[in-house]
Amino acid sequence: MAKNEELFNAIMKGNRNLVQETIQAAIDADCKVVELLDDSMIPAMREMGDRFSKNEVYVPEMLIAARAMQAGLAIVEPLLAEGDHEPLGKVAVGTVKGDLHDIGKNLVAIMLKGAGYEVDDLGVNCDVAKFSQAVDDGCKFVCLSALLTTTMPYMKEIITGLEGKDVKIIIGGAPVTDEYAKSIGADGYGSDANEAVKAVDALVA
Ligand code: B1M
After folding, report:
1. Which position has the higher pLDDT, 205 or 199?
2. pLDDT for the residue 34
3. Ligand 1: distance of its center to the CA of 99 in Å?
4. What are the tens digits of pLDDT across the range 97-151?
5. What's the pLDDT tens digit per position in 64-99?
6. Is residue 116 located within the same domain as residue 161?
7. Whose CA is nearest to atom 18 of ligand 1?
C-alpha cells in the first residue's frame, strides 16, 4: 500500500484527532491496518527522528508526534490483536531502565498479542527486579526494548540478573543489532516488532 500522506502528516504535526479520523476512514475503505502502520505511521516517527537529528524539530515536537502516534495505535491495537489463536505462552515486555521510549515496545506487545501470546506489559524504565518478578509470576519469555545507546548496556545487566531462571530473553530497539544481542548472551533478537514475534516463536518451537 502506498504511503497515506494525510496520516503521515497528521502524525508529524501531532494532530491526534486527524490521526484517528484518517485511520478510521482508511479502515472503512478496507485498508489493512498493518499496512497503515508499516507504510505511514512508523515512517512518520522515523522522519521525526531524522529531523530531530538535524535540529529541525525539538523534544516537544517529538513528544506531540508520539502522542498522536499513540492515539492512532489505540485504534489499530484491537484490530491487530483480534486473532483467534490459543495462548502460546506468557511474555513480559518492557523498556529498560533509564529509557522512556515506549512506542516500539507497545508495537511488540500488540504483535505478540495478535500472534496469540499472553502479554505482561511492564511499561518503561524497568529494572532487573521488575523483570525478575514477571518471571516469578510465570513469564517464560522476556522482551527488552531500548532506544538509546546509553540504555542498551542495561540489557546485559538484566540478562545477568535473570541467570538461572527458566526464561528466554529477546531484545530489540533502534540501536540494537543481532550482533549485539549475541555478544551479551540474549536468546533472540528482533529488528522490528514482527521479527520479535518470530524470535519468540522460534524459541517456543
Ligand atoms: Co527520543 N531519541 N529521546 N524521544 N526519540 C530517539 C531514539 C533518537 C534516535 C532521536 C535522534 O537523535 N535522532 C535519540 C537517541 C540517540 C541515541 O541514543 N543514539 C533520542 C534521544 C536523544 C532522546 C532524548 C535523550 C532527547 C533529550 O531529552 N535530549 C530523550 C531521552 C528520554 C529517555 O528515554 N530517558 C528522548 C525523548 C523522547 C520523547 C519522550 C520526546 C519521545 C518518546 C515518546 C514515547 O516513546 N512515548 C521520543 C521519540 C518519539 C523519539 C523518536 C523520534 C521516535 C521513536 C519512536 O517511537 N519510533 C526517535 C528517533 C527514531 O527512532 N528514529 C528518538 C517509532 C517506533 C515504532 O520505532 O521505537 O524504534 P522504535 O521501534 C521499532 C524497532 O526499534 C523495533 O520494533 C519497532 C518497529 O516495529 N523494536 C523492537 C523496538 N523495541 C523492540 C524490542 C524487540 C524487537 C524489536 O524485541 C524485544
Report:
1. 199
2. 86
3. 9
4. 999 999 999 989 887 886 778 899 999 999 999 999 999 999 999 999 999 999 9
5. 998 899 899 899 888 876 655 456 899 999 999 999
6. yes
7. 148
How many folded domains does the chain comprise? Answer: 2
Tell which of 44, 63, 82 closes a domain. 82
Instruction: Please give the full DSSP string across the chain, using - where no structure is assigned.
Output: ----HHHHHHHHHT-HHHHHHHHHHHHHTT--HHHHIIIIIHHHHHHHHHHHHTTSS-HHHHHHHHHHHHHHHHHHHHHHT---PPP--EEEEEEETT----HHHHHHHHHHHHTT-EEEEEEEEE-HHHHHHHHHTT-SEEEEE--STTTTHHHHHHHHHTTTSS-EEEEE-TT--HHHHHHTT-SEEESSHHHHHHHHHHHH-
| Nearest CA owner, ligand 1 atom 52 | 49
Query: Within this chain, do residues 142 and 189 fall inside the same structural domain, yes or no?
Result: yes
**Atom 7 of ligand 1: nearest residue by CA position:** 147
CATH of the domain at 130: 3.40.50.280
Q: Which of 82, 101, 136 is the last residue of a domain?
A: 82
Mean of all residue pLDDT scores within the chain:
92
User: Which structural domain, as residue segments, surrounds residue 176?
Assistant: 90-204
